[in-house]
Amino acid sequence: MAFRARHLLGIEHLGPDEIITLLDLAETYVTLNRQPQKHGRALEGLTQINMFFEASTRTQASFELAGKRLGADVMNMAMAASSLKKGETLIDTAMTLNAMHPDLLVVRHPHSGAVDLLAQKVNCAVLNAGDGRHEHPTQALLDALTIRRAKGRLHRLNIAICGDIAHSRVARSNILLLGKMENRVRLVGPATLMPSQVDQLGVEVYDDMRKGLDGCDVVMMLRLQKERMDGGFIPSEREYYHRYGLDAEKLSHAKPDAIVMHPGPMNRGVEIDGLLADDINRSVIQDQVEMGVAVRMAAMDLLARNLTAATTTGGVLV
Ligand code: NCD
Questions:
Q1: pLDDT of 195-230, one tens digit each?
Q2: Largest CB tally within 10 Å, which of 33, 60, 177, 251?
Q3: CA of residue 108 to ligand 1 center, whole Å
Q4: Ligand 1, residues 136, 164, 261, 270: which to mutate, most atoms within 8 A of Cβ?
Q5: pLDDT at 86
Q6: What pLDDT does residue 180 have?
Q7: pLDDT at 1
Q8: What is residue 309's predicted lDDT score, i.e. its pLDDT?
């Protein structure tokens, strides 16, 4: 089986064969999730702990459902009420949980790199559910599955990622994944919202939406990540919407069958027109949510198989 990873910390560490293996397995879970009886047994007897140190609606719910559908015992830690508030460090909290023998640890944290650090300290599989502005691998994988199903392929597509790229882990993981699968990625947004060293990412950069969307197959919109901004990155939301908000007119510059994506949470009237977001002929935003559960089931299933292999061979999880 072409999935060697012990943890899912980022797209950076995955090979194209591993990405395809995961997406193919996720397809079977899309089918399962559409049945009235949704139970699989891949995680039966295993314990999954979700630790979300940042707000989350869809990612946490999605991981919880994914674990439960595959038979795991799932525990959601209420991090706001945890001992971190009493001064315990992230690592001490992780070590405490580690002593309870979890098999899968799903972690979201505001600091880039925090989840990688934690993975070095525990001996279960760790899944990164978003760390600062670094990576959000399951989001990029669910986006990839959504694109593959809508376009029939995951290579040689023109994909525009638009808006607040600088603060977005979603953008970073998507740039890595779409690049590995040999797509042409364009970043579209104001210079103030582009990451530093953007020239080293293997992408094209546009500050004009109409030019950036010209001939695109996929238009991926991002939220303005105000919680990660420490100053004025845009003149005003009104001005931003005028220049960078996706509406039907701007979308008309992309290919006639271009799809519209957004990872959520969405700010209607800031980065995207509400009517367009709801237009089922163009928007695949709800499909992204559906694919999210299937992709997380596949990710935990594959990691659990490697977990068993490591245990039975006496291997150490690294
Ligand atoms: C994203 C995140 O948390 O990085 N949301 C998500 O997981 N669906 C994007 C965002 O917060 O804007």
A1: 999 999 999 999 999 999 999 999 999 999 888 777
A2: 177
A3: 11
A4: 136
A5: 65
A6: 98
A7: 64
A8: 64
170: Cα separation from own chain's centroid: 6
Distance from the alpha carbon of residue 263 to the mean position of ligand 1, in angstroms? 6
| pLDDT reported for residue 315 | 44
Nearest partner of 128 among 222, 25, 54, judged by Cα: 54
> Tokens 């995961």, residue?
22
CA distance 140 to 148: 12
Cα separation, 212 vs 195, whole angstroms: 17
Residue 314: per-residue pLDDT: 45
Pocket test for ligand 1, best of 11, 161, 170, 293 (most atoms within 8 A of CB): 170
Q: How far apart are the first and last CA of the chain?
A: 19
Contacts of 265 (CB under 8 A, 6+ apart): 57, 58, 223
The residue with tokens 């004009």 is 208
270 ligand 1 Cβ < 6 A = no
Q: Which ranges of the chain have pLDDT less than 50?
A: 313-318
Which residue, 199, 194, 201, is CA-closest to 162?
A: 194
Q: Which pLDDT belongs to residue 316?
A: 45
What's the CA gap between 166 and 129, in Å, rounded? 18
16-33 helix and 169-180 helix, angle to the nearest 10 degrees? 110
Length of the chain as a residue count = 318
pLDDT tens readout for residues 158-179: 999 999 999 999 999 999 999 9
